[in-house]
Every structure is written in C-alpha cells, then in structure tokens.
C-alpha cells in the first residue's frame, strides 16, 4: 500500500548576499533550491523561477527574506515575453536576464516593457559580443563572471559598460583574493561570491495546495465571479493562506491589514489572483489527505457558524478558525502562524492572546472538541453546538469531495 501523501511540505530558497565595495550587504540573489542540503541549483528554468517567486512572496514573506534590501531574481524567457506574468510589482526586485536567453526582438521588446513598468534589469553572466549588448541601454546592473571570464577583455567590457552611466557592475563568482583585487582595480561597484559569502538555504514548513483547486480557480476568475473565486479559495486551506500572505506582501502593495479571506481576495483583485494562480499551476505540490483537509475546514466552518450568535464577524471567524486549524497541522501554535499573516487586530488578538469575541469563538470550539462543555464561553450558551459541528463536518466533507477528480 502506498503511503498517504502529507498536507505539509518543506519549502526552500537559496539566498546569496551581494556586497558593495565597502563590504556592506546591499542586495540578495534568490536562488532555487530543492532541499535544505542543496548547495547548487538543480534547475534554472521557468519551474525554478516560479518556485522562487512563490516561496519568497507567499511562504517566507519578502521582508523576512531580504528586509529592505533589493532581491535579484532569475528570469527565463517565458516571464520576459509575458507568457507567464509576474504577480508582483517592481518594488525591491531586480530581474536577472539569464545568459541562456536568446536576446531576439521579442525578448528585447519584453525587457523594454518591464523597464517601462518600473522594473530594474540585470544582465547575468554578461559576455560582450554574445548579443546581449542589445539590452545594455535597458539594464541597471551587469554581472561579470570573475572565475570563467576572459580577464584580458575586462578593459573592453568595462569601457563599453561605462558608456551607460546608469549601469552598476556586479563582480560575481569571486572565489579568491585575486578576484577581489581585480574587482577593486576595475572599480566594480558590487561583489558576490564564495570569497565573501556562500549561499544560505532558508527553509520553512508549508502547506501543499491542491492542484485541482488551483485549476478550478482559473475558470472562476475568467468568469469574474467573485463569490465563486472566494468559495474556491476557502475550500483549500493552503491556497487561502497563500492569498492572505500575498495580500500584504510588498508585491501586493497593501496599505492595511485584512480580517478575512474574502477581504484579501477583494484587495488583490481578480487580476492579481489570476496571476498567482498561473504561477501556482507551474508547481508540483503534494495533494492533501481527505482527513487532514476536512479537519482544517471543519474548524473554520464551525467557528463561522458560531460567530453571529457570539457577536463576531462570520468571515473573520472562518479565517481565525482556518488559521488555528492549519497551525495544528503544521505543529505550530496559532500565535506563531498569525505572526506570518497580515491580520486585522481582532483576528490577531484572538489567535495570539485569545481576546475579544473571536477569542471566545475559538475557545468554545476548542472546548467542544475536547468534550469540555463547562469551558464553553457564556456567549455560546443556548447555541446548538452539536448541530453546528455536524453541519460543519458535512460542509467540509462536501468541499473536499468536490476537489476530487471523477472516476
């Protein structure tokens, strides 16, 4: 018998510092890593780029990964020409055009459109005469490989680059003191390499979104049916959490915090949700077990059912219940998970300190679940808890069943 798949997975991203000439970290290059032990990237394709984007913006959070520093992200042809959209704005990111990308007319036009939209461009592993000089007028950074490049041509390359005063040169793959001395000699503004710092692999525990739910989300978005979009998202706890995180990431540009999944969807808008769905479709997430998914959804629905009678917002109660249920799956406390999400004060207070009407709802659900009816909040007295629980279980089972492929 095959083991049942887990609802949880470990996600990873590599992060290598980029320094200025004084040794100050000014940026990080974000790298695909398939495991915590991986020293080098196993892939540099569209899948790798999509995984870096997803993990950075919806699992770790851009602030946790880079703080207020720039992030360099490798970009493949699919993203450059708009075949796969970028679901984040130009703030705090530099898009690296890989040396393997053929700089044909379509690519040049795509890069120009990205620059027009406010994105900064870096040319990775630049080799003069390879055709990438067509992109020099559009670039803000140029990366020179100090390990494998022809040193005898550095004078020529540096002279050409200095014709574009907006370009900063990044001396990459610095592995010896001689490499650092060479970067100093040519006045290269930025430096990166093992002689300064090796990549660090960051790891987090994540939920694995259902691939089918993501596919169901696309037609709902296409129909511009906001209610259907929201119901599809809340049917998958992992997807709902990613939407919550995305709503307050630097990419989304949110100016305030949210208290429900519905509010997060409205805040992002159908265009942003469509872009995230397309990125997620490139992933290969592990399916959740029916039992794990049903349990997490049951808790959320149970909280929602009790909310109105306990003077709490049903939407906010669903979200608080969802987060606390997911925290249990991840072996985290609700407070630990709440700290990673853009939550309104009442939702955060309920999860972290158990305060307010939402805190009463969560305590009541906890008490009922362990059979301790004496600890049920007074506001829930008179509520048919058994009926609310059974209704929640039926709803959750229907939602999980709806994500299954027909035989």
From TrEMBL:
<feature type="domain" description="HDOD">
    <location>
        <begin position="204"/>
        <end position="389"/>
    </location>
</feature>
<dbReference type="InterPro" id="IPR001633">
    <property type="entry name" value="EAL_dom"/>
</dbReference>
<protein>
    <submittedName>
        <fullName>EAL and modified HD-GYP domain-containing signal transduction protein</fullName>
    </submittedName>
</protein>
<dbReference type="InterPro" id="IPR013976">
    <property type="entry name" value="HDOD"/>
</dbReference>
<dbReference type="Pfam" id="PF08668">
    <property type="entry name" value="HDOD"/>
</dbReference>
<dbReference type="InterPro" id="IPR035919">
    <property type="entry name" value="EAL_sf"/>
</dbReference>
<dbReference type="InterPro" id="IPR014408">
    <property type="entry name" value="dGMP_Pdiesterase_EAL/HD-GYP"/>
</dbReference>
<dbReference type="InterPro" id="IPR052340">
    <property type="entry name" value="RNase_Y/CdgJ"/>
</dbReference>
<feature type="domain" description="EAL">
    <location>
        <begin position="1"/>
        <end position="213"/>
    </location>
</feature>
């Amino acid at each position: 018998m095959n083991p049942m798949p887990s609802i949880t997975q470990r996600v990873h991203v590599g992060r290598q510092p980029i320094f200025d000439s004084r040794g100050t970290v000014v940026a990080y290059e974000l790298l695909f890593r398939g495991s915590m032990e991986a020293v080098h990237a196993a892939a540099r394709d569209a899948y790798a780029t999509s995984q870096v984007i997803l993990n950075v913006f919806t699992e770790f959070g851009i602030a946790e990964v880079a703080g207020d520093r720039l992030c360099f992200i490798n970009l493949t042809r699919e993203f450059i020409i708009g075949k796969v959209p970028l679901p984040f704005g130009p703030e705090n990111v530099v898009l690296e055009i890989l040396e393997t990308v053929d700089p044909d007319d379509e690519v040049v036009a795509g890069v120009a459109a990205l620059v027009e939209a406010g994105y900064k461009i870096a040319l990775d592993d630049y080799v003069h005469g390879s055709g990438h000089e067509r992109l020099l007028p559009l670039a803000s950074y140029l990366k020179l490989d100090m390990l494998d490049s022809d040193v005898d041509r550095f004078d020529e390359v540096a002279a050409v680059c200095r014709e574009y005063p907006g370009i900063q040169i990044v001396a990459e793959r610095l592995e010896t003191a001689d490499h650092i001395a060479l970067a100093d000699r040519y006045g290269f503004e930025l430096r990166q390499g093992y002689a300064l710092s090796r990549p660090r692999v960051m790891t987090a525990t994540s939920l694995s979104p259902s691939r089918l739910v993501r596919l169901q989300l696309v037609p709902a978005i296409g129909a511009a049916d906001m209610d259907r979009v929201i119901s599809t998202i809340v049917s998958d706890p992992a997807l709902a959490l990613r939407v919550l995180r995305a709503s307050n990431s630097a990419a989304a540009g949110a100016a305030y915090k949210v208290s429900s999944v519905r509010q997060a969807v409205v805040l992002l808008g159908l265009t942003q949700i469509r872009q995230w769905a397309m990125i997620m479709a490139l992933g290969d997430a592990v399916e959740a077990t029916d039992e794990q998914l049903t349990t997490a959804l049951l808790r959320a629905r149970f909280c929602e059912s009790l909310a109105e009678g306990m003077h709490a917002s049903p939407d906010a109660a669903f979200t608080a219940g969802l987060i606390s249920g997911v925290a249990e799956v991840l072996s985290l406390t609700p407070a630990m998970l709440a700290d990673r999400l853009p939550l309104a004060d009442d939702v955060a207070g309920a999860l972290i300190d158990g305060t307010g009407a939402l805190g009463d709802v969560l305590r009541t659900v906890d008490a009922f679940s362990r059979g301790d009816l004496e600890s049920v909040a007074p506001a829930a007295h008179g509520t048919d808890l058994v009926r609310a629980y059974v209704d929640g279980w039926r709803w959750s089972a229907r939602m999980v069943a709806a994500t299954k492929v027909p035989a």
